[in-house]
Specification:
- The complex is a heterodimer of chains A (152) and B (479).
- In chain A, α1 packs across α4.
- Chain A is globular.
- Chain A has 152 residues and is an alpha/beta fold.
- Chain A has a 5-stranded mixed β-sheet, covered by helices on one side.
- Chain B has 479 residues and is an alpha+beta fold.
- In chain B, 41% of the residues lie in helices and 20% in strands.
- Chain B has a 5-stranded antiparallel β-sheet with strand order 3-2-1-15-16. A 4-stranded mixed β-sheet of chain B has the order 8-7-6-11. Chain B has a 3-stranded antiparallel β-sheet with strand order 12-13-14.
- In chain B, α5 packs across α6, α6 runs antiparallel to α7 and α7 packs antiparallel against α11.
- The radius of gyration of chain B is 22 Å and the shape is globular.
- The chains are: A alpha/beta (152), B alpha+beta (479).
- Chains A and B meet through α3 of A and α4, α5 and α6 of B.
């Protein structure tokens, strides 16, 4: 079981692209292969679900500010668990949540951060035109990546 | 030479704050101040919106206690409509609120405070966090995350979402409880009771270790919170009671709409968080903490005569032995009070779900605008939350006043960190343990600065020791 966590605030335009993309992927995959979650933030109780033994990998889908350095492309990077400093509040980074889950499950969990470039993070619903247009390609790329993961 | 120590930002609270510690010429602490440095202006941009939109707008104030804002808002809406909501709708709203207590208090205790309590203030900061807690107490950490998850799950079962729900509305709730949902919630409770039992046991074992700290957090003040008509612990709809440090009622039961006769708000030019105070003990004088009162778990347990559920009453009796038999005046015991309230909430959920009419489908009263003013007051996990709206005859908001829990505790938080700083800060030497103790002095109130002003994101931690002429004499930072 691969867990796909698309997180972000849908009331801040492109910040909500993670949940949108996660839901799109969810409609294309068989429910038994993929669990799709779409929280606003990475909160502690998500670690419990990731700690379940049938979870084989986790993908964190989030928006990033489009600086054009990556050519406005969706990027995928592996994530390693990392302990927070004492400075943390009510939510986690992907690395912190991953470590939390790994400590609870007692074993490593392969994880990737999928970053989708966004242009508009202002107040409002709906994605910007460029981010909206990039969704189809992002979805294809992620679907291929998930097929690759499922064959590992 | 007079100097200032700044702790910026305070961590493991929701939102951003910084602390300045003012030293006198002898190098001793004269005062500590918590600055809340963010600004949101919800009270302004809600003007012109229909009153029935307010629950959906104001529950976006916060991702941690949106349920409380929604409930205060719908209660203000009920008042504007001039309706008494159907009895089952009130019961469902109460379950909603108790579930919020479970998730919010569990987060505060297990994730934010347990690292201090179970690992110690002087534990290595690299592992003095929930990860360090998992490594040393894996079962506690696991139960903590489960308990928080159970609270969230009950909210989701009731309202289809665990945050920012649109279920509670002026007049009642959108849809009733089904038997399937009732059974799903009931099935979660045994595990929750077991987890809170473990937490209580662990916390009580810590008291001896923190005896000196308990004393530092001890000071006289008023306490405030809602109580039932009989004087019982109340979190949704009751009379606002103020009592003195010794438990003597100062105002035994204020009707919610009259809160302005008893509470006034002052401002300081160094913080966006207002300073509410009890008017009869005014005028406002921060140096003397005039009119200071404490709300939240400690306030509620101090103002009530009894809890009203068997297990919580048993714990309440034990809790009161930590004080004078009636009130507990050390803010350190907010933690204990918080756990008792989780226990109380679980018992009340269990009791209420057993009531015969709980599946009744009459859950919403319909009405238009019948009053031009409505006050909604609830007890949020952090304390008394007041939404006060004025509308025109079309129901459009013309004025909003929000007094949030964290604001009520502002004077007390400043008093607490002053006490701590006086004990632990001497001269120019800053230590990690001192820094964390000052932070804990704020964290024990579980403030939600998102609610009081604005917050998201995280920043590194820095403390600065600054001379009177502005030079940085010493600086500590994390990250």
């Amino acid at each position: 079981m691969i867990v796909l966590i698309g997180y972000g605030n849908p009331l801040r335009r492109d910040d909500g692209v993670g949940p949108v993309l996660a839901r799109m992927i969810g409609t294309r995959c068989r429910p038994g292969d993929l669990r799709v979650l779409t929280p606003h933030q990475l909160v502690p109780e998500l670690a419990e679900g990731l700690a379940e033994k049938d979870v084989t990998a986790v993908l964190f889908l989030d928006a990033r500010v489009n600086d054009d350095e990556g050519g406005a492309k969706v990027t995928v990077h592996p994530v390693s668990g990392a302990a927070p400093s004492p400075a943390f509040g009510h939510h986690f980074s992907p690395a912190e949540l991953l470590l939390y889950a790994e400590l609870l499950r007692g074993s490593p969990l392969p994880a990737w951060q999928v970053s989708v470039p966004g242009d508009d993070f202002g107040f409002g619903e709906g994605l910007s035109c460029r981010t909206e247009k990039s969704l189809a390609a992002a979805c294809d790329m992620l679907e291929n990546f998930l097929i690759f993961l499922s064959r590992q | 030479m007079a100097r200032t120590v700044r702790i910026e930002p305070v961590t493991r609270i929701e939102g951003h704050a910084k602390v300045s510690i003012y030293l006198d010429d002898a190098g001793e602490v004269s005062e500590a101040r918590m600055h809340v440095v963010e600004f949101r202006a919800f009270e302004k941009f809600c003007i012109g919106r229909p009153f029935y939109e307010m629950p959906g707008i104001t529950n976006r104030i916060c991702g941690i206690c949106p349920t409380s804002h929604a409930l205060a808002s719908v209660k203000a809406g009920d008042a504007i409509m001039g309706v008494a909501i159907p009895p089952v709708a009130e019961k469902l709203r109460r379950i909603f609120n108790w579930a919020q207590y479970v998730q919010s208090h569990a987060l505060s205790f297990f994730h934010l405070s347990a690292p201090d309590l179970l690992l110690g203030f002087d534990h290595d900061p690299a592992t003095r966090n929930v990860m360090g807690l998992i490594q040393k107490y894996p079962d506690v950490a696991r139960k903590g995350v489960r308990l928080r998850g159970i609270g969230q799950e009950i909210l989701r079962i009731l309202a289809d979402k665990s945050i920012h729900q649109a279920w509670a509305v002026p007049g009642g709730v959108r849809h009733p409880l089904t038997a399937e949902k009732r059974d799903a919630i009931t099935a979660l409770l045994p595990e929750a009771f077991a987890s809170i039992g473990l937490a209580l046991e662990l916390l009580k074992k810590c008291f001896a270790q923190f005896a000196a700290d308990v004393e530092i957090y001890d000071f006289p003040s008023l306490f405030a919170g809602l109580v039932t008509a009989e004087g019982g612990l109340e979190q949704y709809n009751g009379l606002l009671r103020f009592c003195a440090s010794d438990g003597t009622p100062v105002e035994p039961g204020i009707v919610n709409e009259r809160y302005r006769d008893y509470i006034d708000e002052a401002s300081e030019n160094w913080s966006y968080l207002k300073f509410p105070y009890f008017k009869a003990h005014g005028p406002y004088n921060r140096a003397e903490y005039a009119g200071m009162y404490r709300v939240g778990p400690l306030g509620r347990l101090n103002v009530c005569d009894f809890a009203g559920t068997p297990k919580a009453d048993q714990e309440l009796a034990e809790f009161r032995r930590l004080g004078n038999g009636r009130t507990v005046t050390s803010s350190f015991h907010y933690h204990y009070a918080r756990l008792i309230e989780i226990l109380f909430s679980l018992e009340k959920i269990e009791q209420t779900l057993r009531e015969e009419d709980i599946l009744d489908d009459w859950v919403r009263a319909e009405a238009g605008v019948n009053r031009l003013h409505g006050v909604g007051m609830v007890e949020a996990p952090r304390g008394t939350l007041i939404h006060d709206y004025r509308v025109d005859r079309n129901g459009l908001i013309t004025d909003v006043n929000l007094i949030v829990s964290t604001g009520h505790n502002n004077l007390a938080m400043n008093r607490t960190i002053t006490n701590i700083a006086r004990k632990y800060v001497h001269g120019d030497v800053l230590t990690e343990g001192m820094l964390n103790r000052v932070e804990h002095g704020i964290r024990v109130y579980d403030p939600c600065l998102s609610c009081s002003t604005h917050a998201l994101g995280r920043m590194p931690l820095a403390i600065r020791l600054i001379s009177a002429d502005g030079r940085v004499l010493h600086e500590l930072s994390r990250n």
